[in-house]
From TrEMBL:
Name used for this protein in its record: Uncharacterized protein
Chain positions covered by the region annotation Disordered: 22-47
PANTHER family linked to this entry: CRYPTIC LOCI REGULATOR
Organism: Artemisia annua (Sweet wormwood)
Length: 171
């Protein structure tokens, strides 16, 4: 490819005159700027985005409220539940048994009654413990959700250079 005299152009840059090769127009020419977007369509799209975001947020909060209501109802049911009592079995003693066996049976019945009450209390404690675990899991999830934006900050970057570049790009 030989360079002809026609391939050069004369440039005057504030009194400094020089020749340079002509540039062939490689960038596409824009005959007209693109038409401006329709404001009505933009407004509708923005309303649609807002609506979907709000619906997602509403569903999230309704789910969380239903979980708390379930936990509250379960706890209320536990509080309203009457304590389990074992009915006393009255034995007909017609003087056939000896006094030692009747007092032994009385102690046995009392021990059975206390044992039944302890088992009922254990069941209640296990239920409350399970509810506490559920509430703790919900609180931990919320805490993680709140902490996540703090951990994503550029201040935690491993090197100073990365921190400086992230601070410069945010300006």
């Amino acid at each position: 490819m030989s360079i002809n005299e026609d391939d050069w152009e004369l440039i005057n840059d504030d009194g400094f005159v020089y020749k340079r090769l002509k540039r062939h127009n490689q960038t596409p020419t824009f005959s007209q700027p693109p038409p401006p977007p329709d404001p009505l369509a933009q407004a509708q799209a923005q309303r649609k985005r807002k609506k979907t975001i709000l619906l997602n947020l509403k569903n999230k909060y309704q789910k969380e409220i239903s979980q708390w209501e379930h936990l509250s109802n379960t706890l209320t049911a536990l509080q309203n539940k009457p304590p389990v009592t074992v009915p006393l079995v009255v034995q007909n003693q017609s003087g056939v048994g000896s006094p030692e066996s009747s007092s032994d049976n009385g102690f046995r019945e009392l021990a059975d009654k206390v044992l039944a009450q302890l088992e009922a209390q254990e069941a209640t404690i296990n239920e409350v413990s399970r509810l506490c675990d559920t509430v703790e899991a919900l609180c931990d999830a919320e805490e993680q959700r709140l902490k996540e934006p703090l951990f994503d900050l550029p201040i935690w970057e491993p090197s100073c250079e990365e921190l400086m570049t992230s601070l410069q790009t945010e300006e």
